[in-house]
């Protein structure tokens, strides 16, 4: 762990302010309201990173929806996707014949989302789409369709608003780029 917990020593620069994030949630919420009109979607939040985004997003959606959560992990505490996705905590809801919308903080390699989409389809969901806040395309390892996203990001490690580094910094109200030296320090 970085020795100095002063946030200015950890964040290189702010990428998205609270207002930027709010605008993304409003735009996505309006689109989802149109696309899910007359449906009763099951919103599946990917724990833990997506909880901040999910709670803001659903309040911008005028849809009769239900919410459940699933914790799948491919990263552990590392920074690279292992590709080895496992279910840490499963849904309580039966997805058979449901219109499912997966909500995730960020898509990187795409392996986590692909695993979740395949699993929910296999369980009989009528439709499975995803809505991610950030779309990092540089390391994509498949051609997964990301139906909805807030913004594209470059190949940088971002934290805040649910996104974590070694489980820290989720509670920052903005999204910032982690200083590369912090990552190097932690890898020692
Ligand atoms: P994949 O590679 O399967 O992984 O698409 C998605 C998960 O990877 C984590 N991830 C990040 N987490 N800042 C983070 O805090 C990042 O820049 C970042 N890139 C990937 C995240 O947990 C996501 O759910
Ligand atoms: Mg995650």
TrEMBL record:
Function statement: Purine salvage pathway enzyme that catalyzes the transfer of the ribosyl-5-phosphate group from 5-phospho-alpha-D-ribose 1-diphosphate (PRPP) to the N9 position of the 6-oxopurines hypoxanthine and guanine to form the corresponding ribonucleotides IMP (inosine 5'-monophosphate) and GMP (guanosine 5'-monophosphate), with the release of PPi.
A GO biological process held by the record: purine ribonucleoside salvage
SUPFAM superfamilies (alphabetical): PRTase-like
Alphabetized UniProt keyword annotations: Cytoplasm, Glycosyltransferase, Magnesium, Metal-binding, Nucleotide-binding, Purine salvage, Transferase
Catalytic activity line of the entry: IMP + diphosphate = hypoxanthine + 5-phospho-alpha-D-ribose 1-diphosphate; GMP + diphosphate = guanine + 5-phospho-alpha-D-ribose 1-diphosphate
Protein name: Hypoxanthine phosphoribosyltransferase
Major location category of this protein: cytoplasm
Enzyme Commission (EC) number: 2.4.2.8
Pathway of action: Purine metabolism; IMP biosynthesis via salvage pathway; IMP from hypoxanthine: step 1/1; Purine metabolism; GMP biosynthesis via salvage pathway; GMP from guanine: step 1/1
UniProt source species: Lactobacillus apis
GO molecular function terms noted in the UniProt entry: guanine phosphoribosyltransferase activity; hypoxanthine phosphoribosyltransferase activity; magnesium ion binding; nucleotide binding
Gene3D superfamilies per record: 3.40.50.2020
Cellular component GO terms, alphabetical: cytosol
InterPro entries: HGPRT (IPR050408), Hxn_phspho_trans (IPR005904), PRTase-like (IPR029057), PRTase_dom (IPR000836)
Taxonomy, superkingdom: Bacteria
Family: Belongs to the purine/pyrimidine phosphoribosyltransferase family.
Cofactors named for this entry: Mg(2+)
Phosphoribosyltransferase domain sequence ranges: 21-165
Protein's cellular compartments: Cytoplasm
């Amino acid at each position: 762990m970085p020795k100095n917990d002063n946030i200015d020593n950890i964040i290189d620069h702010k990428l998205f302010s609270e207002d930027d994030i709010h605008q993304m949630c409003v735009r996505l919420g309006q689109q989802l309201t149109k696309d899910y009109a007359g449906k009763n979607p099951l919103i599946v939040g990917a724990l833990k990173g997506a909880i901040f985004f999910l709670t803001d997003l659903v309040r911008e959606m005028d849809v009769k929806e239900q919410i459940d959560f699933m914790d799948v992990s491919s990263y552990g505490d590392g920074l690279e996707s292992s590709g080895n996705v496992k279910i840490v905590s499963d849904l309580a809801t039966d997805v058979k014949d449901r219109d499912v919308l997966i909500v995730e903080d960020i898509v990187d390699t795409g392996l986590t989302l692909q695993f979740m989409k395949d699993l929910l389809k296999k369980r009989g969901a009528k439709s499975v789409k995803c809505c991610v806040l950030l779309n990092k395309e540089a390391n994509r390892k498949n051609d997964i369709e990301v139906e909805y996203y807030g913004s594209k990001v470059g190949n940088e490690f971002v934290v805040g608003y649910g996104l974590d580094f070694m489980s820290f910094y989720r509670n920052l109200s903005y999204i910032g780029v982690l200083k590369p030296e912090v990552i190097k320090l932690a890898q020692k």
